[in-house]
Amino acid sequence: MIIATDAPATQEARRVMDICNACRYCEGLCATFQAMSLRRTFVDQDFDYLANLCHNCTACYHDCQYAPPHTFDVNVPAVLTDTRIATYEKYAWPGAFARAFQRNGLLVSLVSAVLITLTMALALVLISNNVLFGRFSGPGSFYQIIGHTLMVVVAGLTFGFSVVAMCVSVVKFWKATGKGMPSLKSVWRGCVNAGTLKYLDGGHGEGCSSVDDGFSNQRRIFHQLTMWGFLLCFAATCVATVYDYGLGRVAPYPFFSLPVLLGTVGGIGLLVGPVGLIWNKMRSDTTPMQVDYYGMDFAFLIMLFLVSLSGLLLLALRETAAMGMLLVVHLGLVLSFFVMLPYSKFVHAVYRLAALVRFAEEANR
Ligand code: SF4
Ligand code: SF4
Question: Which of 87, 261, 312, 352 measures 20 to 30 Å from 328, CA to CA?
């Protein structure tokens, strides 16, 4: 669904950004204000770009002399959150799935519950109890429960579709918000800023002001644990694929092997990070937040936590009779995660990276 140019989120973003561009008090806080100050006037797509540069630290709300109860009613984090969620719908691919971002928390929970139940039901019907609750050990033990080909085909199709959907979406976003290809230098700078979560430092290194007027790096730390936890788990999967197809080494692998070590460290990050982010959000001042979107955030974080928890339990109990059911549950969770990837909070990562690359490109100029 394409947002009309007179959509309320865009109108309010224009009103607020016009005030900010005249004021410019917050210019040092983050990339959003620096990118804003490079523009004298705004086209609608500029708000898509600026909204995805914002990570909702709320520093500008706490610093603003025009925030409510002032009659200007400037609430930059809230208006950019509205605009940001609207971009997820606007650039979603296929367009028919754009509505997945409405009541997203409920949708992600429902789809996940259905897929996990379906996976477990199929396993109970199709796999004999002797196998499902049997004890297996050594290379190939997972494939005694579910065939290697079936696992690869289902994971490949769902993850492949999600990657294609997100690539199409981010290309649409890139084309709408500016021109040309980015330089390698800008891509590198954007990746470094995304990887270090540079702008979660509040512009002064002391972090977000999510709880009150003070600052804290807690959100940045928990976000780092979540992001790097995810990337390490992804790296573990890539290494395991090379082991399997390149070296002919069949899973599961010993604990002191590269895929298992990467997956274990990443998995612990994915347990601590999401819990910390939920805890941080629950105790945050909700005035500059849009609590309507908390469902989207929480559903995604809980999904990450459950995927990680089931993976770590599978690692710990893989030589017991619990392995079969744990494998089925873990694969059901991973399947849900893959299916919902382009229609969940995960997309903020790709849009934000694209916005940071564009910002580096503008800064270079
Ligand atoms: S948020 Fe407030 S203080 Fe900051 S630039 Fe905008 S109007 Fe000025
Ligand atoms: S909420 Fe934080 S990141 Fe967003 S515009 Fe304000 S200062 Fe920048």
Answer: 261
Q: What is the Å distance from ligand 1's center to 199 Cα?
A: 17
Residue nearest to atom 7 of ligand 1 (CA): 20
Instruction: Kindly report the length of the chain.
Output: 365
Q: Phi first, then psi: what are they for 167, rounded to 5°?
A: -65, -45
- Is 27:33 a contact under the CB 8 Å cutoff? yes
pLDDT digits (tens, 9 = 90+) for 32-72: 999 999 998 999 999 999 999 999 888 899 889 999 999 99
Distance, CA of 10 to CA of 21 (rounded, Å): 16
- Domain ranges in the chain are 8-90, 95-364
Ligand nearest to the CA of 17: 1
DSSP state, residue 287 = T
- Residues touching ligand 1 (Cβ under 6 Å) are 19-20, 23-26, 60, 63-66, 74, 76
**Residues 85, 10 contacting (CB under 8 angstroms):** no
CA–CA–CA angle 324, 310, 112 (5° rounding): 95
What's the gap in Å between 60 CA and the centre of ligand 1?
6
Looking at ligand 2, which residue's alpha carbon is closest to its atom 6?
60
Element (H, E) at 171: helix 148-177
State pTM to two decimals. 0.92
pLDDT in tens, 183-221: 999 999 999 999 999 888 877 777 777 666 678 889 999
